[in-house]
Amino acid sequence: MYKIVNHSQNERLFAAKVVAQQRIKTLLVDQEEAEKLLEYRTNFIRQNDEKKKQELKRMRETEIIEEMRSQALKEHKKYLSSLEAVKALGEVEENTVISNDSLADDVTLTEGHLEIRKRRRSRSLTRKVVGTIKKTIRRSVSLFNNHRDHHQNPTPKI
């Protein structure tokens, strides 16, 4: 005849359902925030890695450029010194003394003995200097040609 309704049990089930739905909503919001944070951190790490790679690349390029400049400067100085040596040999008179003797010996000699010490310059020394100069010039020319071949703008093909 009478229907017995258990209101307290229905209220408890309804309350548990509401609490579970709220908990699911908060967990979904937390999951979205965690995904955004993870994406932000991975992007940040990726950008830092790219910056480090770019910086290392720039440092390597500057080191290579500085090394090439110093090498070219050394070659140029060798070339200039050999050019000066050739000019100096061209200006040397036939009767000058080219010697490795110390200046102390020359100071102790009297004026009369100075003429005795004069002798003709050695031909082997001249050959040695000229050979070194030719070698340096050859190296400089080949270095210049190699640099030009590798760094010249390519001609457009029509």
Task: Write up this protein.
The chain has about 160 residues and is mostly helical. The chain has 4 helices and no strands. The chain has a domain at about 55-150. Helix 1 runs antiparallel to helix 4. The longest helix is centred in the N-terminal third of the chain and has 85 residues, at about 5-90. The model is unreliable at about 100-105 (pLDDT under 50).
How is this fold's topology laid out?
Blueprint: H1 7-91, H2 103-108, H3 111-117, H4 123-151
Main β-sheet, in a few words? none
For the record, give the distance between the C-alpha atoms at the N and C termini, rounded to a whole number. 105 Å
Mean pLDDT over the full residue set: 79
Amount of beta strand: under 5%
Helical fraction equals over 70%
Count of extended strands: 0
Give the topology string: H per helix, E per strand.
HHHH
What Rg, in angstroms, do the CA atoms define? 44 Å
The SS-based structural class is mainly alpha
- Return residue spans where pLDDT drops below 50 for at least 5 consecutive residues: 102-107
Backbone shape: rod-shaped
| Number of contiguous helices | 4
Overview in brief:
The chain has 158 residues and is mainly α. The chain is built from 4 helices and no strands. Helix content is 80%, strand content 0%.
